[in-house]
Model the fold of this input.
Amino acid sequence: MVWTRKTFSKLPEKVRATSRLALMLIADYANEDAECWPSIKRLSEEMGCSESTVRRSLAELVQLNLLVVMPRTAQYGRQTSNAYRLTMVEDFAAPAEEAEQAPTPADPAAPAAPAEHPIFANAAQQDDRGQPAAAQGTGGARQFAMTLDWQPEAKHWEAETLRRGDPSLTWDRGELADFTAHFADKANQTNSSRAWCAKFARWASDNRKRQAAQQARADQNNAKNNARTAGGSTHASHRPTGPVRNASMSAAEGRAYLEQQRRQAQAGDAPGGDILDGEWSS
Done:
């Protein structure tokens, strides 16, 4: 860290702030051998910039002879995070100064130009998300895989909702979280920003249709329940709980008739007026 602070005062003014911050972070991560191996993603999160910006900053530090990048591979040859070693040099020459002092190509004693460092080539072939950049001259939009922090651009969302004929369509944080989580697991699926926006608009529109259908069913069920409640006894049984009254009897006659039936039943006699089928014997 002491070396890094001293180096800051010697850096040309044109060196970007992100490169200075990257150098400070690597110095903070470095061990006793001035080496460390933080991932590009971690540096991007701590620097608050895109992964492509981190790569360009590291490339600038390499060009200033302040940093050495050492590619690393895991078991079975899988690429893993690079290792970085601080050069710890006291004096260094800026690229512009070196170019001015370099001999002209006409000079037969001029040394061959150094090969381009792999980190420069990789940075040039990747977009701001670290994904392969779209081919130049094809006219195609830049393709990238979905990430959890993606959000639709306002201009793309407005254009897509107008194209779908639903300019009032909106989205909420829950829908966006479900959408990004669903497609972030499909790393091999890439689309342009406009295409991802179109997919998200269709996702949000389908959600609205499902919500409308659920609300319609709920309203229909509520209407049925309210009708049952408001109707009261209209759906109840209308069967009388007492005896059926004969239309030819008055109320008093009916009560007298029932009393007579009750007394005869208590005395064990057959109710008067009953007709017994078949022959009768004592």
